[in-house]
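Let us practice reading a record.
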Amino acid sequence: MRPAQAAEPVGSAPDDRAAAPESEKARPSGSRKPARRARSVATDVFPVSSVWKGTMRQSFADDMPVRTFDITVTVKERSKNSFKATVAVGEGLVYEVDGNIRQNRLEWNTTDATIRKGSAGRHQYWGEITDRNRLELRFSGTRPDFVGTSAVGSAVLQEP
């Protein structure tokens, strides 16, 4: 013998979820939490073809005076957590890098860079994008003659 089923109240659907609006069907019956919405896709803060221009101030471990130089970073390729960019430093150095980005923080190094013009020491760069249009940069490492060096600066996203 089969057990008797409880009678349904008059006017209710056999499954409350079937009569619910589409947005509420995903939640189990009896749940009071609203249905979860899909995350919106965040706008990329470091998109392909973006150009960032600014200056950096570099100091050295020896008696060489502090120098200020222009820097331009042009994003060539992007995937989820990586990028390829061309970096122009002053008038004498141009190199291509493969870097990593996570949310608004990025990094690259010149050790693995492809030098297109000039010569570079061994530097590790770190950056953070603030206000969606400002790239705060710093690096540390050595010059080609292995003297320690570091720099800080910023670059601004250029309008297309």
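A brief commentary: The domain at 51-157 is CATH 2.40.128.20 (Lipocalin).
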